[in-house]
Amino acid sequence: MDITSLFDAPKNPAYFDSAASSLTAKPVRAKMEEFYSQYRANIHRGAHRYTKKASQEYEAVYAKLAKFFHAKESEFIQVRNTTEAINGVALGLDFQRGDEIVTTSIEHHSNLLPWLRLKEKGVVVRILEADDEGKLAPDKLKALLTPKTKLVALTACSNVLGTKEPLEQLVKVSKDNHSLVLLDAAQQVGHHPLDLSKVKADYMAFSGHKVFGPTGIGALYHREGAPLAPWFVGGGTIREASLEGYKLLENHERFEAGTPAIAEWMGLGAALDTIDKIGYPKIEAHEKKLISAMFSAFASNPKVSLYGPKSAQDKACALFAFSVGRVPHHEVAVMLDQFGFACRSGHHCAMPLTKRLGVEGTVRASLHVYNNEEEVRMFGEALQKVGALA
Ligand SMILES: Cc1ncc(COP(=O)(O)O)c(C=O)c1O
Q1: N or C: which end of the chain has fewer CB within 10 A?
Q2: Catalytic residue at 317?
Q3: Is 238 in the same domain as 353?
Q4: Over the Cα atoms of the chain, what is R_g?
Q5: In angstroms, rounded to a whole number, what is the distance separating the alpha carbons of residues 110 and 112?
Q6: CATH number at residue 297
Q7: How far is the CA of 111 from the centre of ligand 1 (A)?
Q8: 0.90 surpassed by pTM
Q9: What is the CATH number of the domain that holds 79?
Q10: pLDDT in tens, 63-107
């Protein structure tokens, strides 16, 4: 199958910013258009054929999520994005003064700020320091855990360094300590399978817009039996209501207050179908080639400082943060844009990690299945031109 036929990938500049947001696959756009043009109605309301069809298509997405992640339909909660999912867990768990949370030095702000905020309640936040290349060590995590560690909140892959983390071991060490585990899988799901029957996290968050899906939609996985109270209540969440009180529904419905993002949810389902259609083995093989081509492009340029893993086997995805001489990161990004490449520059919402790298910001090139080795070769040439100006 020709992967490129599934996307409208821009050529000039080429899109090298997939870690911020991936391109949206054509079948995703088609699915949303199908809903809007053929059965546009609210869901779970009334008996007419449009609402019935919309409800059926909407519900089918939970089944897709369950199959995709090896979990149960009822364990997925619709959210807007990874950030909302993680905040939901921070608000929905009953943290008490003295409870401890372990998170890491490589987190996106979305998996750091919600925990730091809990310090106001007297919660203790401990930080697992990654090594210089961004790798998290299970034995170091073990040393930080205590009987009071209520939650371990980890990224599956750094959005700055593209690290491959020993997820199963990190989760196991935490579970052996009877701690709850939250995985920030925002940078994982678009690149590698995540089998939740093996990686036994209690909560897992990801965003549709990073997995070929629409913006404004994501999912929170909430393992059956793991504690979590709804952070919003209202229409759609109750079994029964009176002027004195209410009884909540079971399962995910108790968390999904109000009319949901119907088209986007269907779009998310189509995004997962797209990943299935391409197949993770093909995505991984393609990215492996891109990763080694990118390493060659960087290696041949003495002006470039590359952050994070130095070898392809430690990279989870084709995501590279770098600096060129002393040229400010935004200037490098503007030059690269002029030479044909759309890269991100800044702190990538990971200020503590950026500070640890000893810089104010970096340029980030992040590629995906719709990029190719020829683009990487030309990117290497563009970097040489930028280097010559440094
Ligand atoms: C690792 C990681 N976590 C969380 C987020 C936040 O995702 P969103 O903005 O979709 O909520 C991102 C986005 O870049 C990310 O890369």
Answers
A1: N
A2: no
A3: no
A4: 22
A5: 6
A6: 3.90.1150.10
A7: 8
A8: yes
A9: 3.40.640.10
A10: 999 999 999 999 999 999 999 999 999 999 999 999 999 999 999
